[in-house]
Amino acid sequence: MSYYQVQSLEQYFKHYNKSIREPRKFWDKIADENFTWYQKWDKVVEFDMQEADIKWFINAKVNITKNCIDRHLARRGEKTAILFEPNNPGEEARHISYNELYAEVSKMANVLRDQGIKKGDRVCIYLPMIPELAFAVLACARIGAIHSVVFAGFSASAVAARINDSECKMVITSDGGYRGSKTIDLKGIVDEALKNCPSVEKVLVVKRTNANINMKEGRDQWLQPLLDEAMANSVAEIMDAEDPLFILYTSGSTGKPKGMLHTTAGYMVYSAYTFKNIFAYEENDIYWCTADIGWITGHSYILYGPLLNGATTVLFEGVPSYPDFGRFWEVIDKHKVTQFYTAPTAIRSLAKQDWKWVDGHDLSSLKVIGSVGEPINEEAWHWYNDHVGKKKSPVVDTWWQTETGGIMISPIPFVTPTKPTYATLPLPGVQPVLMDELRNEIEGNQVVGSLCIKFPWPGIARTIWGDHQRFKDTYFSTFPGKYFTGDGALRDEVGYYRITGRVDDVVIVSGHNLGTAPIEDAINEHPSVAESAIVGFPHDVKGNALYGFITLKEAGSWRNQDNLVKEINEHISSHIGPIAKLDKIQFVSGLPKTRSGKIMRRILRKIAEGDFSNFGDTSTLLNPEIVEEIKNGKVE
Ligand code: PRX
């Protein structure tokens, strides 16, 4: 197999230049040499970046699960595909071989078909990190149903909004989930959500915690008895290259989540290619990504990327702090993990703990360690590099997004010299550019700008489900003809990229991408609240935390502000999820606004950060006096 796997810096530049000069030839070869197709493409790519219309591998026919599972059976049938490490270290790990994966996915696919799910139907998957989650995702892909995995930390109303947006016909959930010392009542949340979801006909329930749950007659069924009756082999649906594979919701800067749509062949090629290169993957490696499958990182780098490469991928149900802060290191030691991929927020929280948690475990199996989800600060980078990688396993700081489908900018281990806090160089096939405020491309090095990509790559999302106009407006209109990432970046003297953070109203909290608008909408629903503005501020562990400036309908009417703070946070928790709770709330008598009524978030951001030095031009403010009041009342 050849993925243009890069072995030296010289080769990197060679491949990179080829990918720019002849992108069609470059991707044609990767797609041709590494996958099983029912039928190959007539044309590699067709695109119109003005209209945000992008297609890859035109008219090719393929099924991604044939590539993830079936084609490995002859050579790797007995090899572990999924290594399940349960929340409770006392529960035995499960080694699921490729043969078993084939049987489990087939059974699940047959159940879905029996229950009336057809190609193109949407299925919402709301499950904890258990093997059935992987089986359900792959079973959808097997029969051509579009999976929409919703992270099991979302609240009932967030689940309902996602189900309704894509009109899911079915929900797959469980009687509950374990997370550290807690259990989560997933079925209860689904029941609550489904009060307002007319499209859902059936609910399949996995047994995990044995919690006492309600089963609604005619709608809900336990999954296991259905699986027991199902055949352990199945025919894969023949999918067109551009048939939808999945929808995954991500926050935007307006209230409604964006259902990013990924299609079959391009996503397959891109997730496989990036996995192989970025993790320097070799046949007997044990690869572990700690993300949740409810996020894109889990889709691309727990399931699809590793399985497409015939790898062994660890599926971890637990959390880094349970039963103690040594859990990650214990699991690495126990399974002799070779690649470890996690988020800066986890690194920061573990770096705060006693040394003994790391040092008590043998991490010598590690070859490559990765970071994803937000900028990694210098201190955390060094801690990770020194204490986990022991300065011998390169840190791959991988920059990408739900929208990009796979990693875009990252060091290639043992090839690209790493530099703390830098995602370094684009992968061959990826063409980043920095843009200035006048929408001109910034040439040369040692420059800062808005990060765009100027040529399509196979993994790019094709649209926002049901709203192509929003897709165009969000990603392709700020810098016409280019894909705008929403991130700012700098390019250093040798051409390395460093991502500086979002330039829009999205704040990344503990690696979770949160739009401020939906949180404000939730707060504004509280009967006492008149208006609110949310901004991010730097936080030691979470990277960013949320600061809310809130005006009340009747100022001072709330004698007990502590209660109000609690109520507002509970309200956010039930509307969006606990991840969106505010760390600080300041009640103010007004918000700084321009004459056109727009809240000047720039000023609020500086106040929240504790930087009162220079608020820039405030002459356009309608109420400049409010700035002083807000400054004086800042919550510490
Ligand atoms: O701001 C960037 C940040 O995460 C955003 C994408 O979030 P999401 O779609 O949830 O996907 C996260 C997992 C891929 C980006 O726009 N981000 C992601 N990785 C990095 C990063 N910021 C800096 N460095 C990174 N390595």
UniProtKB/TrEMBL annotation:
Pfam families xrefs: ACAS_N, AMP-binding, AMP-binding_C
Keywords per UniProt: Acetylation, ATP-binding, Ligase, Nucleotide-binding
GO biological process, one term: acetyl-CoA biosynthetic process from acetate
Domain AMP-dependent synthetase/ligase: 70-462
GO molecular function terms attached to this record: acetate-CoA ligase activity; AMP binding; ATP binding
Domain Acetyl-coenzyme A synthetase N-terminal: 12-68
Record-linked InterPro entries: Ac_CoA_lig, ACAS_N, AMP-bd_C, AMP-bd_C_sf, AMP-binding_CS, AMP-dep_synth/lig_dom, ANL_N_sf
Transmembrane intervals: none
AMP-binding enzyme C-terminal domain ranges (all copies): 519-598
Domain of life: Bacteria
The protein's Enzyme Commission number: 6.2.1.1
Family: Belongs to the ATP-dependent AMP-binding enzyme family.
Identification of the protein by name: Acetate--CoA ligase
Organism: Flavobacterium akiainvivens
Lineage: Bacteria, Pseudomonadati, Bacteroidota, Flavobacteriia, Flavobacteriales
